Each structure stands twice: as C-alpha cells, then as structure tokens.
DNA sequence: ATTTCTGCAAACGATTTGCACAGGG
DNA sequence: CCCTGTGCAAATCGTTTGCAGAAAT
C-alpha cells in the first residue's frame, strides 16, 4: 500500500488524539491492499488475514475514521450494504456504473458532468456538495455471450 | 388524484390476479394525494387518515406493487429509509438534488444528462437501465439568511 | 369454497452500542 | 496510571415474513 496514505492516516489519528493499535494497522493494511470496492464484511475478512483477532465492531468503528480522514470514500448505492472505495484519493471525481447482472462497479470520470451539475445546483438555489451519478446497467457482454467474465460480487442476499 | 392512475393500478391488479381491497384503496388514495416524496411511514400515516385500520405491513406489501405497476418510483438515497415519488409518471426522467441541511428533495430534468449517460454506458460496454443523478447540496438560502423556509423532513434519526 | 389479504408480532440483517477488560501513551 | 481501544453480545431500526383469521371472487 501507499506509504503516503498510511502516513496521512497516522497524522489524522495523532491530530484527533487517537491511538495506533495492531487492529487498526491490520484494518488499514487490508483497506488499501486492493483498488476494488468492498463492504465492511469484506474488509473484516481481509483484515483478519493480517490479524485474526480483529473484530467486526472494530472494523465498523474504524471505517468512519478512514472516511473522515479522507482516504476512503463511503458509497451507498441503495443496496443492502455500503461500499467503500480505497481508490478515492487518486480519482476524487469519479462516478459509478453498477451492473445489475453481475454487481460489478465500474468507475468513470467525465468532465462534462461536473460542470453540468454545478450549473444545475446553482440554478436551483443550492451549492453542490457531493455529486453522484449512478448508472444501473446491464453488461453487453452477458447479453451477447450469455456469460460474464467480470468480477461477480453477487450471491449475497 | 388522477383517475387514470387509479385505473392503471386496477388493471394491473386484475392482470396479476390480485384483489381490490379497502386497505389498498386507502393506500392508493394516500399515495397519490400529494406530489411530494414520502417514506413508507409517511404513507402509513396518510393512509390511516383515510382508513385507520391500515397496517404497516400492508403498506410495505402494497408499495412494491405500485412500483411494479410503474406508477410510483422507489428511490434509495442511502439515507435511513427509502423514498417514494408519486410524480414519476408525469416526469419520468427527473433527477434529484437532496439538501443536506433541510433534507428537501428537489427534482430537476436536464436533456444533456440523458445523452451523456447513454454515451458513457456505451463506452464502458454496458446498456444503461436506470440513470440517477444525486446531488447533495446546501441551501444558498440557509447560508445567507441563516434559516430555511423549505420543507423540512429532518429530525428523524 | 377457494384463494388472496390482512393485522399482529416476531424475524431479519447490516450496523451501532454498552460494558468490562485490555493495552497504548 | 489514565484514558482510549477492543471483543462480545445485545440493541437498533427500517423492512420483511409466518401465521391464523377475514374478506374478496
């Protein structure tokens, strides 16, 4: 994982008077061991590979810290659980396309969108704070070939 | 409420072999007595003004029917509960701006967005199915005047 | 009659939290 | 030492569901 991210987190913890613990280290290590999106439960599994003593509660308590620190983005797609995006720092302006077939989440950026959204907010009398585009879509690949080679997070509930 | 909507619902129920009951009538009447967005709990309260015997379970069981019938739109903003939009038939392509201060949901349409989203999906190899723009924003009014005259759904949890 | 509906209350499931102990500063 | 962090298990809360009786066709 990126040492700068780890450093940033430690500074944040210090600033807040919070401590560096083995569990938090394991969770941080796990959280940035991938560029994929994951759930709290996914992260628990990943963190336990580093430190088996990590509990679910600690994961749930650590996630908001990483979000507040700005290194992780929380995303609620109206699915059953929230997703977290460790790739946020590198691509702060991305949007998400969610495949309803395979649950794959694809990131994309588009310069037009940002302008458009800022315009719209201004027109309505608001100042945009978080702009999210969610596109639910179906794989062309699946429709044409009958199967889908993408990451399949489905099956859960 | 619009008689055409009611008619459309009755046809849907008939087609599905479902029955017309006093409770469903009350819920339908309540569901289209406003153009505002509401939650399941809001709808329960509204329906009980028409028929006090309506239960929460029946509301929760009826909502998906109205959604499937196409007269109501379900929206999950990643808040604590889902919202329902009875205004969907008249404005099927609208997007939502949610004020983080007062929880007001403002609808807007924009022709550019639709084109943009279809392009993006195609570029990524998907066929867009549901396109949602969510803008979280802050009232300019609140910031400037220190108060907000908009509908305030806040306070819950 | 037969089938769908209903209200009730219990179940559900992701997330949060109270508590008593562990461990970092 | 003191105060924060932790695991555990119980609580939370919108929503769903099993069941037995009620109502529609």
Assembly state of the chains shown: homodimer
Based on DSSP secondary structure assignment, what is the total number of beta strands of chain A? 5
Separation, N- and C-terminal Cα atoms of chain A:
31 Å
Q: In CATH terms, what is the fold-level topology of the largest domain in chain A?
A: Arc Repressor Mutant, subunit A
CATH superfamily of the largest domain in chain A: Winged helix-like DNA-binding domain superfamily/Winged helix DNA-binding domain
**Which blocks of ≥5 consecutive residues of chain A have pLDDT under 50?**
151-157
Protein described:
Two copies of one chain form a homodimer. Chain A is α+β, with helices and mostly antiparallel strands and 157 residues long. The first copy, chain A, is built from six helices and five strands, in the order ααααββββαβα. Chain A has helices at residues 3-15, 22-31, 40-50, 56-69, 111-124, 140-145, and strands at 73-75, 83-85, 95-99, 105-108, 126-139. In chain A, the strands form two sheets. In chain A, strands 4-3-5 form a three-stranded mixed beta sheet. Chain A is globular, with a radius of gyration of 18 Å. The relative contact order of chain A is 0.12. Chain A binds chain B through residues 75-78, 82, 97, 99-100, 106, 108, 110, 112-113, 116-117, 120-121, 123-141, 143, and chain B through 75-78, 82, 97, 99-100, 106, 108, 110, 112-113, 116-117, 120-121, 123-141, 143. Strand 5 of chain A pairs antiparallel with strand 5 of chain B, so a sheet runs across the interface.
């Amino acid at each position: 994982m990126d040492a700068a991210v780890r450093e940033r987190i430690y500074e944040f913890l210090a600033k807040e008077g919070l401590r560096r613990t083995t569990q938090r280290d394991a969770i941080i290590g796990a959280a940035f061991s991938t560029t994929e999106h994951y759930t709290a439960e996914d992260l628990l599994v990943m963190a336990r590979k580093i430190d088996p003593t990590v509990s679910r509660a600690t994961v749930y308590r650590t996630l908001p810290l990483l979000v507040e620190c700005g290194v992780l983005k929380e995303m609620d797609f109206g699915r059953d659980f929230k997703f977290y995006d460790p790739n946020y720092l590198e691509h702060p302006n991305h949007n998400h396309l969610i495949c309803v077939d395979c649950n794959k989440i694809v990131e994309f950026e588009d310069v037009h969108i940002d302008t458009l959204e800022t315009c719209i907010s201004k027109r309505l009398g608001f100042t945009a704070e978080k702009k999210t585009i969610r596109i639910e879509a179906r794989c062309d690949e699946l429709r044409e070939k009958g199967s889908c080679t993408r990451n399949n997070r489905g099956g859960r509930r």
